[in-house]
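Thread: "does anyone have the structure for this chain?"

Original post by V.I.:
We have the sequence but no experimental structure in hand. Need at least a predicted one for the grant figures.
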Amino acid sequence: MTELGNLCVRGADLSFTLLEEEMGNGTSDNDGKEPVERIIARHGANYVRLRVWVDPIPGWSDLESALVLARRAHEAGMRLLVDLHYSDTWADAANQIIPAAWRGQPLDTLVESLRTYTRDVVAAFTEQGTPVSMLQVGNEVTEGFLWPLGRIGRMDGEPWSEFTTLLRAGIMGARTGTPNGQELAIVIHTDRGGDNAGARHFYDQLLEEDVHFDVIGLSYYPFWHGRLADLQDNLIDLAARYDKDVLVVETAYPWTLESQRGKPSRFCTSEEQLPDLEEFPATPDGQAAYFEALRSCLQRVPDNRGLGFFVWEPAWLDGVGWEPGLPNPYGNLTLFDDHGCALPALRALRAPGV
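Reply from O.Q.:
Generated one for you, tokens below.
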């Protein structure tokens, strides 16, 4: 990567932004009301993460919306991480639903569909002048992707070969869609932020299957993945074991445990879910302290291997849910309060030394 060093990546996933704006939601800080990408850039963010689904409901993580947001991020001076879910809807460690158009394809046909799709998506960003700097080939692929064929741990005796064949096809498509001389870092993303044994098992197998990639991407949510010390140990071990950069591609922390506008959080609702509660209470200042400690964790990874972090959907405000018509389950995990005003944790996006 061009900019080397710990914390050279400080970003946010802003994929819901257009839907938020359609609902009339806005963001502001001490300098006034501005689009969210402008605010986070002013506070030091240098990356935006955008998810892309294959054939979703129009406006919901489709390529067209991502291209619009990519232009806005580029105009604000930030680079792009594109997160390909390879699904028509949410893909994560528990759900990897194959796109409807690819369902039933044999492996060789699915390989070509995946390769071509990835190539074309990467090329689309380049063609509009917003090249992809980092690409996730799948989202939280701990159990594989493109189920059932690409699922890991199936009982037919071939739990990894189909998955890694598909993974290599996606990587090849990304490389093919990237012009010569343009940098592209391939990120392989799992949800094992606090689970060193699970992370080792996964990435050991990738290397055994000869999958070539650049960055280990991890989700880390304390209310699911344990103490920050677990993440710290995992980052240091993985960076040394594989001689690769490590990146927290998703994280969040509550600034309150109270329901927002009468709508309770779906994810973090009690103090018992927070393993480092004494250090990081569920308050605006406690949230800010969590992100400062996260920065320190990444800076302690030797040899500048701790690239940085992405805050997941820091401006997911009231009126937008997981799907059309559903309530927002996330309002206490944002970096803006329920009125869209910036919280103190936004300072964690600053460059090192600032």
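V.I.: this helps a lot. The chain has nine helices and ten strands.
O.Q.: and The first helix runs from residue 17 to 22.
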